[in-house]
Design a protein that fits this description.
By secondary structure, the protein is of the alpha/beta class. It has a single domain, classed as Rossmann fold. The protein has an eight-stranded mixed sheet with strand order 1-2-4-3-5-6-7-8, with helices on both faces. Helix 2 links the parallel strand 3 and strand 4. It starts with a helix and ends with a helix. Keywords: Hydrolase. Pfam families: Abhydrolase_6 (PF12697).
Length: 310
């Protein structure tokens, strides 16, 4: 955790605190902004090579999903996914996509019993955290605690150029080609972000090592996405950055991805203007986060209507 983030957490007016969530023999670390009487609990899952601080960006106060959610009456918890934070040394079986989901199902059980979750639990996932959120929602099935999910920075298939490298005989799972590890591929135009974002002396970017097994699961996602999406039975919101270079995000690609959620009662998709892959770290974070909370409100309404009809 950077000094700037530590200062933000200890500020007298900050609702954000460090949290530990016990699951089995380990504890997942993270950040939390807990409301006394929340409308719902939002569980946020960061992408690969990042950590929970992604949702509490230190470059500007408008970036924080946690602070905004608390202001809107939500409890928000951003967890370090298995393999990150306090669990960097756990076995690969718990860091695989299926292993992560198993631990997160346990985590949801703990959160639902330890905290007031209001109308239920709403998932927000970015990049590989979006992959995890979709798979977690699929695993939860008809669990009435789950309201819905909002995912961004993920699609059904990779950009053509990246896909060619991923499936070439010369490409290993450990490294991406240089052009897909560049700043532009994950960030887009630098003007999309507060000036402090790329100041190395401040160290504000929430970077973390990527577990090798996670890289392998990421490569295989296009083979798995249709199966997992079809098992999701709650409302789904898909958001794509204006400058998304990792995934195929032409209108037909977005429609194809949305169409995979055949058992979801409500599926919406949006393209977020003035944003790159790491949307929650840029100026577009606030409009994107507001839209995510608005969709959470839609999910709450849907749940109430569903309950009234039963």
């Amino acid at each position: 955790m950077t000094n700037q983030m530590s200062e933000a957490l200890t500020a007298a007016d900050s609702p954000v605190e460090v949290i530990r969530v016990p699951v089995g023999s380990v504890s997942l670390s993270g950040l939390a902004a807990l409301h006394d009487s929340p409308r719902a609990l939002v569980l946020a899952l960061h992408g690969g090579g990042l950590h929970a601080g992604y949702f509490h960006g230190g470059a500007h106060e408008d970036l924080s999903l946690l602070t905004l959610g608390h202001q809107l009456g939500y409890s928000v918890i951003a967890l370090d996914r298995p393999g990150y934070g306090t669990t960097t040394d756990i076995e690969d079986e718990h860091v695989s996509l299926s292993g992560q989901v198993a631990l997160l199902v346990e985590a949801i059980g703990h959160l639902a019993s330890a905290y007031d979750v209001g109308a239920g639990i709403f998932l927000v996932g970015h990049s590989f955290g979006g992959i995890t959120a979709i798979t977690l929602a699929a695993a939860l099935g008809d669990d009435t605690r789950l309201l819905g999910l909002d995912v961004n920075g993920v699609g059904a298939k990779y950009d053509d150029g990246l896909r060619a490298h991923l499936h070439s005989s010369t490409f290993g799972d450990a490294e991406l080609p240089t052009e897909f590890r560049s700043r532009r591929s994950h960030w887009g135009d630098e003007e999309f972000y507060p000036p402090a974002t790329f100041d190395r002396s401040l160290d504000l970017r929430p970077h973390a090592p990527v577990p090798q097994v996670e890289r392998i699961d990421a490569v295989r996602w296009p083979e798995r996405v249709a199966h997992e999406a079809a098992r999701v039975t709650v409302p789904v919101h898909l958001t794509f950055a204006e400058q998304e270079y990792n995934w195929a995000v032409q209108p037909d690609d977005i429609d194809e991805f949305a169409g995979l959620f055949v058992n979801s009662p409500l599926v919406r998709s949006d393209v977020q203007a003035a944003s790159g892959h790491n949307t929650s770290l840029g100026w577009a974070a606030r409009p994107y986060h507001l839209r995510a909370f608005a969709f959470a409100e839609d999910a709450i309404v849907y749940q109430r209507l569903l309950g009234a009809r039963q």
